[in-house]
Design brief:
Shape of chain A: globular
Strand order of the largest sheet of chain A: 1-2
Strand content of chain A: under 5%
Helix content of chain A: over 70%
Number of helices of chain B: 15
Largest interface: A-B, 32 and 37 residues
Shape of chain B: elongated
CATH architecture of the largest domain in chain B: 3-Layer(aba) Sandwich
Strand content of chain B: 15-25%
Number of strands of chain A: 2
Distance between the termini of chain B: 117 Å
CATH topology of the largest domain in chain B: Rossmann fold
Order of helices and strands of chain B: HEHEHEHHEHHEHEHEHEHEHEHHHEEEE
Oligomer: heterodimer
Number of strands of chain B: 14
Radius of gyration of chain B: 27 Å
Radius of gyration of chain A: 19 Å
Largest sheet of chain A: 2 strands, antiparallel
CATH class of the largest domain in chain B: Alpha Beta
Order of helices and strands of chain A: HHHHEEHHHHHHH
């Protein structure tokens, strides 16, 4: 039996959980608001840089991160209302508009903060060592919090009044309107929630890497693949697919070559879509 | 009567037209042949640098340093009674974009000297055009050795190419000195971005290290877009090296340094080029940059009487630290070009080339003189690199002994 280093498994699980949280915002917006948000990476970028800014002006790390997440949600709501909602039925236009927004975000960040690499302080410092595993405490924390946030979102969607309204809007918009649900408000709140979750993934993941203006594009691509292959609208699908992607990347990187890790992840998502077009946990 | 009036009218019109044409022709002739009253044409220097993309940070530093040099020269009266003008075009670190930018500088902006370029791939894409347009091209950063090889093999066509940079062989020799003289390592892991510069360096460094009895215990080339190095670091850990040589380029360097620190691998690490040479980056990384060693072309020590002045003025003017290579070298390149134009007393390309070949100029990095391949001479008395190390956000030279500020430290073993 091949011995699998525990480090490899934990690497895959932790990064996978983070991928799941990264994707969930995109999935939520896709399924409820019915638009492809190409500015997803841009909101990720904003989340990271806002947290950086708040840290730099002296706010504590947890407060800086929380404020950044909330502010990204608010910015999401405003941008949706002013620019996307008026054209939301024109899908191609929305795709292009949000893509342009992502470019604008990148340039604004570049002009405001400069192209130099920045470092976001982690929520938890230090390194865990034990059982042959070495892992930064931030990575472990980010993974745990990702799972918690996705679980809370799932509970919210299933149990809360607003969550039920969101589900009704997704399933049958006309029926939702007949029941007196303000669909426009649902779209606004969902978009804000989706971008806030993206911001949350950024503030948790960014301390593991560095900040630079073009940092949003890879998360966007990863989130897109994970969202589609996990199943549009499936909260658990995004998390499960994120973990599968992360484990695939970790195993292939270790046993074959690191350069094949991400490629294997993408190939796997393509295979899932061919075998099950609605996605792993999609209906 | 009416017919006669009409005829006279036609003749008058024709005469008026002829008079107007003649007067206009005389005026044009006088304008073209009269002594010039307009100011003499500016001396135009064309800078190619990546202002967008992965290398934007360094590209901006190059532009800032070049502009500072140009402003200083103009404050001192310019050259040949003319103002020096810097025109910068963005290469985006991409060969196709870089070539397009170079052609715009040559054909549209009509620069007298071309200089800069960061990515060797961009420089090599531009090189074949130089014989066609005969513009002096001073390469201030790109390190690929083959950039100046055509000067030796085809002098007539490529005499316009000069390297004020340090080349890969020189960069590699510094890394060898780190392994053999600074840490005395016998087992080395090579981990660098999958790009031309790192691979070229590896090809130079590997045989030299092996000839000195050092074993390369592993090699990996993660893609430049990699952000998660955990698997790569797992492989490094399993080979148990005495030292790790790295040439991350662009955004992956700081990320790799951070994750290397968290992996607790405990082997001394040395960066050949990349962002880890910047104090701004080192301070941002905090503890993760501690004790990281790297090669530098220049440092904030009095290598020449101009070195400290450069650092002081650059930081004061722009509010960030020098990269210790790309910007200071580009700064010196402006002065080398202007010095050659001054000695040539001309902006004619061949005269500039003749003057460049006789260059003996002391800049902020050291003394510039060109060898037969038009690369700068390397070694004591000329340009010579050093090895530095970050300690609590401050950098110190640890090699060679004549420039050493403190002993090399590696407290993690």
């Amino acid at each position: 039996m091949v011995e699998v280093p525990l480090q490899v498994v934990l690497n895959g699980l932790t990064i996978g959980a983070i991928y799941g949280l990264m994707a969930i915002g995109l999935s939520l917006i896709f399924s409820v608001v019915d638009i492809a948000n190409s500015a997803h990476g841009g909101f990720y970028l904003l989340g990271a840089y806002l947290a950086y800014f708040f840290q730099k002006i002296g706010l504590g790390v947890p407060l800086a991160m929380l404020l950044a997440v909330l502010l990204v949600g608010v910015i999401g709501v405003v941008i949706y209302r002013l620019t996307i909602h008026p054209i939301r039925d024109l899908h191609a236009n929305v795709l292009i508009l949000t893509f342009l927004l992502a470019i604008v975000f990148e340039q604004v960040v570049r002009i405001t903060f400069g192209p130099e690499y920045k470092n976001l302080q982690p929520l938890v410092t230090g390194v865990f060592e034990g059982g042959g595993v070495v892992m930064s405490n931030q990575r472990i924390t980010a993974a745990v919090l990702s799972v918690i946030l996705v679980s809370l979102l799932s509970l919210f969607i299933k149990r809360s009044k607003l969550g039920k309204a969101i589900r009704m809007t997704t399933q049958d918009i006309e029926a939702a309107q007949l029941l007196g649900i303000d669909v426009t408000l649902i779209y606004l709140l969902t978009f804000g929630l989706g971008t806030a979750l993206t911001g949350a993934s950024a503030v948790l993941a960014a301390p593991l890497f560095t900040l630079y203006p073009a940092m949003g594009w890879l998360p966007f691509i990863l989130s897109f693949f994970i969202t589609i292959s996990g199943g549009l609208g499936s909260v658990s699908g995004a998390l499960v697919m994120g973990v599968i992607f992360g484990l695939t990347d970790a195993f292939v990187s270790y046993y074959i070559a690191p350069t094949w890790g991400l490629i294997a992840g993408f190939l796997l998502t393509l295979i899932i879509l061919v075998v099950r077009p609605q996605g792993l946990l999609g209906r | 009567m009416r017919k006669r009036t009409a005829a006279i009218s036609k003749v008058a019109t024709a005469v008026i037209i002829i008079i107007v044409i003649v007067v206009a022709a005389i005026a044009a002739y006088l304008a073209l042949t009269s002594a010039p009253t307009a100011a003499p044409e500016n001396v135009k220097l064309g800078l190619l640098t990546p202002l967008t993309g992965t290398f934007a940070r360094t590209g901006k530093a190059m532009q800032d340093a070049a502009q500072m040099a140009v402003d200083e020269i103009n404050e001192a009266g310019g050259v040949l009674g003319r103002k020096v003008v810097l025109i910068t075009r963005d290469t985006a670190g991409d060969p196709e974009t870089g070539l397009d930018a170079a052609l715009k500088l040559i054909l549209d902006d009509k620069v007298h000297v071309l200089f800069g370029t960061y990515v060797s791939g961009v420089t090599l894409a531009i090189l074949p055009k130089i014989p066609q347009y005969k513009v002096p091209f001073l390469v201030s950063v790109s390190t690929a050795t083959e950039i100046t090889t055509p000067v030796l093999t085809n002098y007539t066509s490529y005499k316009y190419v000069f390297g004020t940079r340090w080349n890969n062989t020189q960069v590699g020799l510094l890394a060898v000195s780190f392994v053999t003289e600074v840490v005395g390592a016998k087992r080395v892991f090579f981990m660098s971005a999958d790009a031309k510069f790192p691979r070229d360096l590896y090809a130079i460094v590997k045989p030299i290290l092996e000839s000195k009895g050092v074993t390369i215990v592993g090699e990996d080339f993660p893609p430049r877009t990699a952000t998660d190095f955990t698997t790569y670091l797992q492989r490094v850990k399993e080979t148990n090296p005495d030292a790790v040589l790295s040439t991350q380029v662009g955004g992956d360097g700081p990320i790799f340094a951070k994750q290397y620190y968290e992996s607790k691998i405990n082997a001394p690490i040395y960066f050949m080029g990349g962002a880890l040479g910047s104090q701004t980056v080192a301070k941002e990384l905090g503890a993760a940059s501690n004790y990281v060693a790297f090669g530098v072309a220049a440092w904030k020590i009095p290598i020449t009487p101009k070195t400290l002045k450069f650092y002081e003025n650059f930081e004061k003017r722009y509010g960030y630290s020098s990269t210790n290579y790309e910007d200071i070298r580009t700064y010196d390149t402006v002065y080398v070009a202007v010095d050659a134009i001054k000695r040539a007393n001309s902006v004619a390309p061949d005269k500039i080339v003749e003057a460049l070949e006789k260059t003996d100029y002391v800049g902020a990095c050291g003394r510039y003189a060109f060898d037969r391949s038009h690369d700068t001479r390397w070694g004591p008395g000329y340009l010579q690199g050093s090895i530095a190390q970050w300690v609590n956000g401050e950098g110190y030279i640890v090699w060679p002994s004549d420039l050493k500020q403190r002993a090399y430290e590696w407290p993690y073993k």
